[in-house]
């Protein structure tokens, strides 16, 4: 049967993850604050790459949700103050024998409660309506919230083109590829001899065209999507650096020592990091593929080592699992207007006392938090300016990494991840062979090395690699795998500026 006659089946939206995160910031204030803290507030540390997320849309909605909550709490705090004032006036009027004044003040004090309930109801209704539109509507998420500052949006857009990622020293051992998720395999492939020249059809020896690791990285970045047949494959060379080294990389990376490092650096630096290693500063080719709907993101980081006559690949494979269950809350919102109003009214009533009387305290704690953060920033910037400390500019994690849950990896996610990794692995080998042939290198022993790599390479899709590891035979790493949930070494939302 021709394909155009087959019954179309439903598909996940390509922006499903972004829309769920945007919907959740309107219903979960803690998550909205986490988004703004990582992506929008002033700071010094690098931002982990949020793979598969439209961060501009997410920050717009987080800012909108925070502003709505701020207006609500300011209104409630005003009503609480009015209620306290009226109660004091009632006491004064009773002691002065002015009954009409006492009655009027008492009436206003009582009326403040339904007034506050209405304020909360309208704010909750607006939040739920927007979350419902994000979950089931079709308008782009970025169009459903007003823009934020142009400078902020420009910096967020640059994350899509990032070619420089500094990682915090605390992640040096377990997760230097910060933002990529859970490690499931790493190792070094069998070396290949690239010193022997190939022969032409007449048996004459050809001259090897000189090349370096940067040339090989660039070739794979361009050719891989076509070789593996995955149009959605993203390939980019990135320079990964230890956070304490950032200050020594110059103004091309850190133009202002008291600001965050740049996310895009000159390509010559990236090329240099591929040819030779610096002080914990190396370039990797990052191959990224998102599963259906973006629920799972698979990443393969590879680095070519060209030492003398031998070429080998260092490989590290990672998975970003599906979102945590709390981001399914939008699925439980009723679609009918009457039902939505009823659910909102029940929610408002259930927590009204805490919401109403807790407004002044929430505003005070938020101001205290922001003031403490600003003081900490100012102190560290002063220390940096005076040269008293070498600051670690590296990122601890990424937002997408923080919201994943390995326990939600289902059959389809595991199948897709395994398929992507196998195709990426085969594509790297095919591209490498083509590159060597184009440079007149004899690849007669490449087939046996290729078979050995394919036969010995395995990916533990059932559980992330969390335990200690030892190098085994065939240059393959043997890992003690632990099937446990949660992000290994979950970092705090905001450990340092």
UniProtKB/TrEMBL annotation:
The chain crosses the membrane at residues 43-62, 74-95, 101-123. Residues 467-488 have a biased composition (Low complexity). This is Aromatic ring-opening dioxygenase LigA. Residues 464-497 are annotated as: Disordered. Keywords: Membrane, Transmembrane, Transmembrane helix.
